[in-house]
Write a structure and sequence with these properties.
Blueprint lengths: L2 E6 L11 E8 L2 H10 L5 E4 L5 E2 L4 E8 L4 E5 L4 E7 L4 H10 L24 E2 L2 E2 L4 E8 L4 E6 L11 H4 L3 E11 L10 H9 L7 H15 L7 E5 L5 E3 H10 L6 E2 L4 E3 L2 H7 L6 E2 L2 E3 L6 E4 L5 H19 L8 E2 L1
Parallel strand pairs: 2-5, 3-5, 4-20
Antiparallel strand pairs: 1-2, 6-7, 7-12, 8-9, 10-11, 10-12, 13-19, 14-16, 15-16, 17-18, 18-19
Bound molecules: uridine-diphosphate-2(N-acetylglucosaminyl) butyric acid.
Uridine-diphosphate-2(N-acetylglucosaminyl) butyric acid binds next to β13 and α7.
């Protein structure tokens, strides 16, 4: 295991932000991980996976550990289900493709989500009506305080919309995850309007899991910028949840406000709509701005700094608070 000094993180964050780590190491086994934590006990340590959900706003005085444990395997549970074990350093989308190739269903709607598999439970990744928690069995984590490995079952992970126990407690490092997928009689989730439209266009009456994956990839790549071309980390904010009373008040001024009912008193509002309505969609200042096709995505056109993007995101939050009296929470982790 090699430790690099004064290492540029530009290729380790999908925002493409230039920042320097005093020390950097890429870890490919759990043993290596335990060892490096012990030998750098007193240093600041930052753990990164694919770097697709972080905004780095400073140089790191300490050690950045890139979790790069590879491996994917499966075992049949019953006639209908297969358990898939994925080590945290595997690219998530490669795993989705692996599952499709092996006719395993349940995560096709999560196609093309950037990042590594170890990050998937941290924010309970979700898209097009499916969340990781729907197929999640358990994960194995390292507690960096005790250097002990613990197992968390689905119900112990406190999964919520873009949230989990691992997002709150940064001492747990995800080592591997186990998913329960279907190996026959797949249950497709295709209610989303945009999926239905594509099925009609493509004249697919009886879609299979690969058809759904293909459609999701099409929809995503049309709207979301490819981080290899324009730095970004997908949705920058979460979709806020407001009360029925608040929604009623907003409807007086904004008749066209879209919403999704969660319960009698709770409604989810698309943050992208709020940001667009506030006039930020496509807005560019220097090398940063809001993407022209998806208002929830903040982009780095070149040499923006993490601090510039963070300040810009705060100005968006302030505008949304002022106009709609809604607090936007960040989805991206700021370092
Ligand atoms: N909208 C706008 N302006 C825009 C874009 C969207 O007004 O520029 C409004 C429209 O009313 C649209 C609604 O927002 O109907 C929802 O838009 P979309 O379906 O694109 O989804 P989203 O709420 O913006 C969420 C996730 C995405 C996920 C999609 C699809 C969050 C924070 N984001 O986005 O996840 O792919 O749904 O399920 O929940 C991510 O987390 O990085 C991510 C990309």
């Amino acid at each position: 295991m090699k430790i690099y000094n004064n290492f540029s993180l530009i290729n380790h964050n999908s925002f493409g932000i230039e920042a320097i780590a005093e020390k950097f190491a890429s870890i490919s086994t759990v043993q290596e991980l335990k060892k490096i934590i012990i030998s750098n006990r007193n240093e600041e340590k930052i753990f990164i996976g694919g770097g697709s959900n972080i905004l780095i706003t400073r140089n790191i005085k300490g050690l950045v550990i890139n979790l790069n444990m590879k491996g994917i395997s499966s075992k049949k549970i019953d006639d209908n289900h297969t358990e898939v074990k994925i080590n945290s350093g595997e690219n998530w989308n490669d795993c989705v493709k692996w599952c499709l190739k092996n006719n395993l269903g349940g995560i096709e709607n999560l196609s093309l989500i950037p990042g590594n598999s170890g990050a998937a439970p941290i924010q309970n990744i979700g898209a097009y009506g499916v969340e990781l928690k729907d197929v999640f069995i358990s994960c194995s984590v390292l507690d960096i305080n005790t250097n002990k490995i613990l197992e968390f079952k689905n119900e112990e992970c406190q999964f919520e919309y873009r949230n989990s126990i691992f997002k709150q407690n940064k001492n747990y490092i995800v080592l591997s995850i186990k998913l329960k997928l279907t190996n026959s009689k797949h249950i497709l989730k295709i209610d989303y309007g945009s999926i239905q439209e594509r099925l009609l266009q493509l004249k697919i009456k009886h879609p299979n899991i690969s058809d759904v994956a293909k459609i999701i990839c099409q929809i995503r790549s049309e709207k979301l910028p490819d981080p290899k071309e324009i730095g970004n980390s997908g949705s920058f904010f979460k979709n806020p949840i407001i009360t029925n009373k608040h929604l009623k008040e907003l409807k007086l001024n904004f008749q066209d406000i879209p919403y999704y009912k969660l319960s009698e008193i709770k409604y989810k509002i698309p943050a992208a709509w709020l940001i667009e309505k506030a006039g930020f969609k496509g807005k560019r200042i220097k090398d940063y701005g809001v993407h022209e096709k998806q208002a929830l995505v903040i982009v780095n056109y070149g040499k923006a700094t993490g601090k510039q993007i963070l300040d810009f995101s705060i100005s968006i939050q302030k505008a949304i608070k002022f106009i709609f009296d809604i607090d936007l929470d960040r989805e991206v982790n700021v370092i």
